[in-house]
Design brief:
This is DUF8006 domain-containing protein. This protein is mainly α. The protein is 71% helix and 0% strand. The protein has one domain (16-83).
Length: 86
């Protein structure tokens, strides 16, 4: 058997954060990963995806401000997609 199991350490670390905070962290990482591509369409599709995630996530897992962030992303991202050239 394993004497050192890292899963309880990861679990204790993740219990401090809610799902909305995790989504914001993943959104920032994905935006930083998409910037070198130089495509506003990719960035806007990314924002639409995370906007849907924020809106669909139950309120018990992500507080209300994250829902508002999702609504804002769903309003702004399609405008960016339509105005993007590449």
């Amino acid at each position: 058997m394993l004497e050192f199991a890292p899963l309880p350490l990861i679990d204790d670390f993740l219990l401090k954060y809610n799902l909305g905070q995790v989504f914001v962290f993943l959104f920032v990482l994905s935006v930083l990963a998409a910037i070198p591509l130089g495509s506003r369409k990719v960035l806007s599709l990314n924002a639409i995806t995370f906007g849907l995630l924020f809106v669909v996530t139950p309120a018990s897992m992500a507080p209300l401000p994250f829902k508002f962030l999702g609504i804002a992303l769903l309003v702004i991202a399609p405008v960016l997609y339509v105005t993007a050239r590449t």
